[in-house]
From TrEMBL, chain B:
Gene Ontology CC annotations of this record: AP-3 adaptor complex; cytoplasmic vesicle membrane; Golgi apparatus
Source organism of the structure: Gorilla gorilla gorilla (Western lowland gorilla)
Superkingdom: Eukaryota
Membrane topology: Peripheral membrane protein
Domain AP complex mu/sigma subunit: 1-147
Name this protein carries in UniProt: AP complex subunit sigma
Residue ranges of coiled coil: none
Entry keyword set: Cytoplasmic vesicle, Golgi apparatus, Membrane, Protein transport, Transport
Length: 1215, 156
């Protein structure tokens, strides 16, 4: 009854849940804001309640309101309260709200550290999961620092669900706390091959265990590598292996994208990639994968662009595939195809240009994105040869285009295409001017100023074109259409600005200056915008000056006076202008002209003086010129000229404000006394603007004239031209006619060239034979119609070399530019929380919780010792890394899975076995990389191999990277060389075949082990039809293909030609792992040679030792200590006498054969750790005496422990 | 990296807003509006990629979207993501919603925004793709729902 009452009251409080709120908002469409503010008041009340359910409900509603744009930061503390609820239901609500609303500025966020830590180590995987998810959204540098170690521990959690989240969130942790990258990286790398940390697991990838974890690791490393690719080059072999073995498209795509980022740094990598990528392109049915492959192949080709003659096939393949995409009816593929095509274009324009038809076709697509992509492509496709044709096509599109946005886009693209790299592709500037003039007919475009800028730029920089430009511009000034439309809000009248200026500035080229003058003084001109009128006024005078001179030289005094009279008559209309600039200029000039009139009346020649006003040449100035002026010696720009007034702030501010306004009005560079900061700011702004403006014209002419006594002008390379095209084109020319003219001209040129070539050939015939180039017309062959001089931009003398730093100091990724190959220093270890949470309940299933460190004393000693070794190691390691990658890359691409020969010796199983050669290439290389042994050894071995005459062995890795089970954290460095070891032991052999096998546990799927069996054909027959039958026991079963019975043999998936070996893998499910066991099996096969075929059999016994159920798992010393303290482990020990081997090697042996990792080593005592596939923890304390070794073990299962120790004893006894 | 995931209906009403980079609430709304206007004017039979809006990201970012009945699902991603891959991911997300809500429609999203978030959290975490296997996603969601239910019963 009482319970019912409580429930009732809760229900009442729950009056409004999320659904009610949503419904309410929908019902209050008119006064939504008011309703919501009511609701927020209610929520505030609810948050004051003690009941956590009520609070959670309120927070849930707040999350909804946040989506609608309401700030809920005021409820941050309540959100934290809900996050710390014990029930998952509420916790999840809290974390969701936090992830939506918390950020680095949320001050209460620091209160969450302990709560999150508690949730991370919660026994419920979903509590942990929810905390990880939430944290990924609001992690701050502080949280990252405090929790890095906890998250790192979770990366080895038993549940893949937690592992994948922990791996993924590490990226965020790295970003916020870059110091964590190096300590965490080994474990992250390990997750690439998630199931088995020993590094052998590349093979297991064929049976992917936990794709989620692996995919997360790939994801994180790809993100990291994208920002700082060079630090991740050494991972290339590993990724290469993954790429050739993984079947998960998502992972493949990521890896392939990563390679795309790596290849520019290492062209040899690219060579290695081409083949597998090409294979993927041919084989995959997934478009996404195909597309990324093509992209990366393109990246490779770009990185190789020179000196790889035989890759034209790859380019062809890419272009061909892209064409298929572009032709596809799926718009998405079409879009991506065009996108990728533009990348090829940069290095191999020829192969793309042949698909011009297709791309021009895309211009007609209904989809604007696609049209724009096609335009982008055209930009790169132009050459001197096809520019006119392409632009002509675009012009027709301009006419057809509906909608001004697209038309404007076309317009800017045309200008862009033509003006790119200093008008590189324009062979005939008359044609270009005509195009620009044609573009002025566009109604309603916003880009009049662009056209104008182009006209000005071309007219100033291409001297030869001025005459033609002037004739066109005067026609523009004369024609009415621009003026007519000027009343509307229309940008096209901007071109008149350019036209007026050009006609004025280069008035000496005008055919009928008087006519133009009249056109510029028409009353209609006053309807133009002020800034254009101002230019008119200014240039009218220039024109006037030149007419005056003409007339006076011709002795027509009357004519001169008539012109003056015209000016006096017409100028007043400008004097009345509302625009200040126009008014001022006009009245100035009017006075000047009146003065001239007086002089003229007295018959004084004035032309000379008037022209002097505008004497001098105008030169384009490079955009960087100002910045590059060197600071004269002795000038300190930072020093105050006048000590600043220190009294009031307002005074401090005023001059700046004044300066600012002034700057806005006159956007010219002024030598300013502005302080450094201001300068830097402006420079930055300008740079930004220039960078953002693709149409930035590098040398905008200053409207103000520069008077120069020009010592600088002479050295500007100005080439005089003789024109082969008649300049006089009546009226407005159609650009089309130029296309025709151009063709004729080229034809003529070609003929001439051919003639010349013939002559040369005849000469050459007598000389030595040379490969004569084919008479194709390449870009370079086309000589421009005009010897165009693009006047180079002026730079100040002794300009400083560029001093910009491209890198943005605020780039968050820059901090992650960390060398990952250097071994860890002690100081880099992640901070571990002390004296907290020690009492958290933990099951042995859960992974290593952290604890305070055991004792300090031995640590110190160890530290010194370690540091010394580390120094040594560092050097070694560095060399090795570099060499290894080189080694991996230097080889030619691996011939698919061609099996390398197994050394034919009969030694096996023992520590001194020869290297195993059966691993496939890539993998072998990878092992190489990790191999802790110095390089020398390898080389020597290789030599041996070669002398043995094994021509196949390109590289013969000593399959021994397991030799020291990778002590991840506190790594036991090697001082001595270890003999190479193999984990493969002899299974059975006869005259036909030798079987060796290795058993590997994996964490992913409980209680499964993978048995890798290497079969080597020792006979001269070909072995085929091989089948493996194993008699299952109660405890161990072989995983068979579905539908096959227990008694059927399992086929071996390959045949063996003579002398060849290969590896097959089989999975076994084990129930109890505490005891070793043996399985009987038979290999049956058909041996076939020239004489015929025989059926043969070979029996074997598969020995599953307890060690084979262990998985090398790194463990931190603190976690290790905690484990030992926990007290739920049983203990046992063994002692072996008569051991002479060094302690170092001894440990390596235990690591290798029994899959342990060293946790900590102090002098002749070491702690080791491993974990079974069923999650048993096994801890060892190994002590070395004079001639003996004692091993104390603790394990969660006593039987397992005693069996393990027995096995270990056997191993040690051999030492 | 995924920068933002937006779900809104044909009228631009937000149904799910998930940013993986901090923006103040007003800016978030502005981005939603701008994105809506960008995708609204696009026909259904043209490509699903858009070079980003001005508010988010920059030239490195793309909007990749799908339009289902009354809803737009828009992902804003940078160049490290595969365009077609993200399209597939949207499909996975929507199919997962369909499975979890049994024939999902806009109303489900309207009234259960929290649940949609929980589902999304199993697909994308902190802007990175967490899981693409729908069965795995659904299994985790169901497990969490069961957990929630069991807690509910304890509550009485």
């Amino acid at each position: 009854m009482a319970l019912k009452m409580v429930k009732g009251s809760i229900d009442r409080m729950f009056d409004k849940n999320l659904q009610d709120l949503v419904r309410g908002i929908r019902n209050h469409k008119e006064d939504e804001a008011k309703y919501i503010s009511q609701c927020i008041d209610e929520i505030k009340q609810e948050l004051k309640q003690d009941n956590i359910a009520v609070k959670a409900n309120a927070v849930c509603k707040l999350t909804y309101l946040q989506m609608l744009g309401y700030d809920i930061s005021w409820a941050a503390f309540n959100i934290i309260e809900v996050m710390s609820a014990s029930k998952f239901t509420f916790k999840r609500i809290g974390y969701l709200a936090a992830s939506q609303s918390f950020h680095e500025g949320t001050d209460v966020i620091m209160l969450t550290t302990n709560q999150i830590r508690k949730d991370l180590s919660s026994p419920s995987q979903y509590d942990t999961g929810v905390a990880l998810t939430g944290l990924s959204c609001f992690v701050t540098p502080d949280l990252a620092r405090d929790l890095a170690n906890d998250i790192m521990t979770l990366m080895s959690h038993t549940k893949p669900y937690i592992r994948k989240k922990a791996v993924l969130i590490m990226y965020k942790v790295f970003l916020k706390y870059p110091e964590s990258l190096r300590p965490a990286f080994p474990r992250l790398k390990e997750k690439l091959e998630d199931p088995d940390p020993g590094g052998r697991t590349g093979m297991l990838m064929r049976t992917p265990r936990s794709p989620g974890v692996q995919s997360a690791a790939v994801n994180v490393i790809c993100e990291l590598a994208r920002r700082n690719p060079k630090n991740y080059l050494s991972l290339a072999p590993l990724f290469f292996k993954l790429m050739t073995s993984s079947t998960n498209n998502w992972v493949l795509i990521k890896i392939i994208k990563l390679f795309g980022a790596l290849t520019p740094l290492e062209p040899r990598l690219g060579k290695k990639l081409i083949e597998p990528l090409t294979n993927l392109i041919h084989s995959t049915s997934a478009m996404s994968l195909l597309y990324e492959c093509v992209n990366t192949v393109i990246a490779v080709l770009i990185s190789l662009s020179s000196g790889m003659p035989n890759h034209s096939a790859s380019i062809q393949l890419c272009v061909q595939k892209l064409r298929i995409l572009i032709e596809d009816s799926d718009q998405n593929l079409k879009y991506l195809g065009l996108l990728a095509m533009s990348k090829i274009l940069k290095t191999h324009p020829k192969s793309v240009q042949s698909h011009k038809d297709l791309i021009l076709q895309c211009l007609d697509d209904k989809d604007e994105s696609i049209r724009l992509r096609a335009l982008d492509l055209l930009y790169g496709m132009v050459s001197k040869k096809n520019l006119m044709e392409i632009v002509k096509k675009l012009m027709t599109h301009v006419d057809k285009a509906e909608g001004t946005t697209y038309r404007d886009e076309l317009l800017t693209k045309i200008i862009d295409i033509c003006s790119q790299s200093n008008y590189q592709y324009i062979t005939n500037f008359e044609w270009y001017i005509s195009i620009l003039v044609e573009l002025t007919r566009l109604e309603g475009t916003r880009h009049g100023h662009l056209i104008a800028a182009q006209m000005l730029d071309v007219a100033i920089r291409v001297k030869a074109i001025r005459k033609f430009a002037v004739s066109q511009m005067s026609a523009l000034l004369d024609s009415a259409h621009l003026l007519a439309s000027s009343t509307q809000r229309n940008g096209i009248c901007e071109v008149l600005y350019a036209a007026a200026w050009i006609c004025g500035e280069f008035s000496e080229h005008l055919q009928e200056p008087h006519h133009t003058l009249e056109a510029m003084l028409r009353p209609r001109v006053t309807t133009l915008p002020g800034h254009i009128q101002a230019v008119y006024v200014q240039n009218v005078v220039k024109l006037y000056a030149s007419i005056l001179q003409q007339k006076e030289q011709a002795g027509e005094a009357e004519g001169a006076q008539a012109v003056t009279q015209l000016m006096v008559d017409r100028l007043p209309q400008f004097v009345q202008s509302a625009d200040l600039e126009v008014q001022e200029r006009a009245s100035c000039i009017l006075q000047l002209v009146k003065h001239i009139q007086k002089l003229q009346a007295k018959d004084v020649p004035v032309a000379e003086e008037v022209s002097a006003l505008f004497a001098g040449e105008l030169n384009p100035v490079a955009p960087k010129a100002q910045k590059k002026v060197p600071v004269p010696e002795g000038l300190d720009l930072d020093a105050w000229i006048n000590e600043p007034l220190s009294d009031s702030e307002s005074e401090d501010e005023r001059p700046r404000a004044v300066f600012h306004e002034e700057e806005q009005r006159r956007p010219k560079h002024r030598p300013s006394e502005a302080d450094e900061e201001e300068l830097a700011r402006r420079r930055e702004a300008r740079k930004q603007e220039q960078a953002n403006n693709p149409f930035y014209i590098k040398s905008s002419p200053s409207p103000q004239k520069r008077y120069q006594d020009t010592p600088g002008v002479e050295h500007i390379p100005v080439v005089q031209i003789d024109l082969s095209v008649p300049l006089k084109v009546p009226g407005l020319p159609m650009s089309d006619q130029y296309v025709k003219l151009e063709e004729e001209r080229r034809h003529r040129q070609k003929l001439e060239k051919d003639k010349r070539r013939k002559k040369r050939k005849e000469k050459e015939k007598k000389g030595k034979r040379r490969h004569s180039s084919l008479p194709t017309e390449s870009d370079e062959d086309i000589a421009p119609a005009q010897q165009v001089d693009i006047v180079t931009e002026e730079m100040p003398e002794n300009a400083l070399p560029s001093d910009e730093d491209d890198k943005d100091p605020n780039d968050p990724y820059r901090a992650l530019d960390i060398d990952l190959d250097k071994p860890l220093a002690d100081s880099e270890k992640l901070p571990i929380q002390k004296h907290r949470n020690t009492e958290t309940s933990k099951s042995p299933e859960k992974d290593v919780p952290m604890v305070e460190k055991k004792s300090k004393k031995p640590k110190k000693k160890e530290k010194k010792h370690k540091e010394k070794e580390r120094d040594k190691e560092k050097r070694k390691e560095k060399e090795k890394k570099a060499e290894d990658l080189d080694f991996w890359l230097s080889t030619t691409p691996p011939p698919a899975p061609a099996p390398a020969p197994v050394p034919s010796t009969d030694e096996c199983e023992d520590a001194k076995t020869e290297a195993q050669g059966e691993e496939d290439d890539a993998e072998g290389q990878d092992q190489d990389k990790k191999s802790p042994k110095p390089k020398k050894k390898k080389h020597r071995k290789e030599k041996e191999e070669r002398t043995k005459g094994k021509k196949k062995s390109k590289k013969q890795p000593p399959g021994s990277e397991e030799a020291a089970g990778e002590p991840v954290q506190n790594g036991a460095p090697e001082e001595e060389q270890l003999p190479p070891e193999s984990s493969y032991s002899l299974l059975a052999e006869n005259s036909y075949v030798k079987m060796t096998c290795d058993i590997r546990g994996s964490l992913q799927e409980d209680s499964q082990v993978t048995v890798a069996i290497v079969l080597e054909n020792r006979s001269s027959s070909i072995l085929k039809g091989m089948e493996l039958s194993v008699l299952d026991s109660l405890n161990a079963r072989m995983a068979r293909p579905q539908g096959s019975s227990v008694h059927d043999g399992v086929p071996v998936p390959f045949q063996l030609p003579p002398g060849v070996s290969n590896e097959a893998q089989y999975v076994f499910t084990i129930q109890s792992i505490v005891m070793a066991q043996k399985l009987k099996g038979t290999l049956s096969f058909i041996a076939k040679n020239d004489e015929g075929a025989t059926h043969e059999k070979l029996d074997f016994r598969l020995h599953f030792s307890c060690s084979s159920y262990l998985i090398t798992t790194p463990c931190y010393s603190d976690a290790f200590a905690k484990l030992l303290e926990s007290g739920d482990l049983s203990m046992s020990s063994v002692k072996v006498d008569g051991i002479r081997m060094s302690f170092q090697n001894l440990l390596a042996k235990i690591c290798f054969h029994h899959h342990f990792s060293v946790v900590e080593r102090v002098d002749s005592c070491a702690s080791m750790y491993s974990r079974s596939i069923q999650g048993h923890h096994v801890c060892l304390l190994v002590k070395k005496g004079e001639n003996s070794v004692s091993v104390d073990g603790k394990c969660s299962d006593s039987t397992l422990l005693s069996n393990l120790l027995e096995e270990m004893k056997a191993t040690l006894a051999k030492c | 990296m995924i920068q933002a995931i937006l779900v809104f209906n044909n009228h631009g009403k937000p149904r799910l807003v998930r940013f993986y980079q901090r923006f103040p609430e007003e800016i978030q709304q502005q981005i939603v509006r701008e994105t809506f206007h960008l995708v609204l004017k696009r026909d259904d039979n043209i490509c699903n990629f858009l070079e980003g809006g001005s508010l988010i990201g920059g030239s490195d970012y793309k909007l990749i979207y799908r339009h289902y009945a009354t809803l737009y699902f828009v992902f804003c991603v940078d160049s490290s993501e595969s365009e077609l891959g993200i399209l597939d991911l949207i499909q996975v997300f929507v199919e997962t919603l369909d499975k979890c809500f049994e024939n999902v429609c806009e109303l489900d999203l309207i009234f259960h925004m929290d649940k949609v978030h929980y589902i999304l959290q199993e697909v994308v975490m902190g802007g990175m793709v967490l899981e693409t296997n729908m069965n795995e996603i659904v299994a985790q969601i169901e497990a969490q729902n069961r957990l929630e239910k069991s807690e509910d019963q304890v509550l009485g």
